[in-house]
Amino acid sequence: MDNVSASGIKALVFDVFGTVVDWRSGVAREVAAFIASAQVTVDPFEFADAWRREYAPAMAEVRAGNRGFVRLDVLHRENLEKALMGFGIDPQSIPAASLDELNLAWHKLDPWPDAVPGLSRLKERFIIAPLSNGNIRLMLDIAKRAGIPWDAILGAEVVRMYKPAPSVYLDTAELLAIEPAELCMVAAHNDDLKAAKACGLKTAFVSRPREHGGAQTKDLFAEGQWDFVASSFIELADMMLGVGQSKRQ
């Protein structure tokens, strides 16, 4: 491993779903409560996975220009109905208010145990903000509930486009009044980092091997020449703040 320095980096932006917060457990918890009240029979984790699978195709429609930009809360609500139909449940048989409440599951996610302590340390030196496909209110609700110490809320709704479109990364650097090379993208997803690197950003991979549960097969390890590779936000803070030896994948 070669030594790598955080010198020149002025801001860190973070993927949120899977990297900062455990979306799967949080959504499954809310689905379990919904099941009890709606008297439907589905496995909460299987439903959470099915709901999440609709995420990428829905955003792809926006990136392709097939529909105008809508915030992720809207896509999640539409995808909820698709997921229900996939389990043979007619969404029309459930009160809309109940579905609207379940859709807020994405606003009630818990951070990984190392996330807030690591972010708090990184905040001492760098600007830190989400660069998520989640909308502003969604990011605010997660942060307020979990005590995530963001300096700003950035991401898809701010730039009106979804990752991994280049404008999301480049426009974010411009909004912060810094060069792309002064901005570091932190994510547990190699495809997010690949897109960021192609735009000239620095990159940091933080592994989350249980994002998709015990049978996860994707993003188990760094698959690119990222600037930093860490097992937690604590280790990333050590690297970027000069504690111990930095690493390059």
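[next item in queue]
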Amino acid sequence: MTAPGARQRRQMHLAVQAPGAGSATVWAGPDSGSHIGFPSFRHLAATADRGLFDFLLLAEGLRLPEHKGRIHDLDAAGRPEPLTVLSALAAVTGRIGLAATADTTFHEPYELARRLASLDHLSDGRAAWHVVASSDAFTGENFRCGGRPDRCGGRPDRSEGLARAAEFVTTARELWDSWTPGGVPRPFAHHGRHFSVSGTFDVARSPQGHPVVIRSGESAGDSGGDSHEEREFAASAADVFLAGPPGTPEAGQALYADVKRRLAAYGRRPEDLKVMPGVTFALGDTDAEAQENAAEIRKQQVSPQGALFALEQVWGRDLSGHDPDGPLPDVDPDPAGEAAPGRAPIADRLAVAARWRAVAEAKGLSIRQTVIETTGRQSFIGTPASVAAQMDELVTAGAADGFVLRPHFTPGGLDEFADRVVPLLQERGVFRTEYTGATLREHLGLPLPVWKG
């Protein structure tokens, strides 16, 4: 309870993204379990629920990763469909929000809006949709477009993809609004540039009115980062903006202020959109131990095979004959070399290679050591008290409304944070000590959407 006259501390929002997508995940090691078994998802969801997190986010994988025409073991070898997993988790969790990543290129508005509304009913108002837009022909080969995303309504360029995604969200909301709050269905009709649908939606208005919409500035399948277009999309259509790691407090503050200022143009208030950077962490009983743990995690993230794969992405060449424990190749990168299927190309290979060479020469590093040194650092490293303080400082400074944690291990990668950091945030008075609402919108402090019948 806040003392009379005391200033209310800014409250932090916390969410977690399940390991299994992206470079943060450690695929093999003594702490790594199944990435596809339901017990792993249930364990993580239960930990997030116990830790009073806002939501659990699952990524979407529409095709197995390949390298040189073969499926490789540097990423998830199979990933269950998110809405299916979350529907099962709805039955074994209490209050935690359930967020599914779903692509706007390879889905249809009616089909996806129906499934999201169903999850919102099954979970009593805890559903969320992480909106992403894919464009690569590699993924498209799995769908009716046969390697031509434009045949699936895909995009010839980034701006067109964002326009389609924005209309997709608008169409889904029109479908959700076709039922009155009193439970009366009405015919709907949407005729736009990308979609023309009409009929009667067959799922009643859900407990939240609309599932929460999350937009990422660094979505899988999207090129670029926290760009102008991504920020504008979030300001116009999202409830949560999943930003990239803040880097520095100043960079976080600049992004936060820029996104928030855009809201007024759409008749929205600053509190109507939560800015939550995706972050990683490494803990220890001392700062030195935390640094050791962080270094060990980075070592496990980059296997010898993974180091060669990363090297080939930068060099644009077949370097499979090189020793990962040997020096960097003396040949220059091929600027026109192809990226691995489904991977975003590196814009300036020569510049990246020059930076890697400088690091390797200065520190006498091998290929693998260079990749470990140059690709990734945990966002927060330290004791539980130190990490709690770092996170609190960023929120207090206006660099974020909270964070989406990306644990390195499945299924127990969140356990230590929930048990040791969350209580310290609660002691600081910046994080809830109990859920005060039942729906995800209530967790996030978001209003119910105004019905537009």
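[queue empty]
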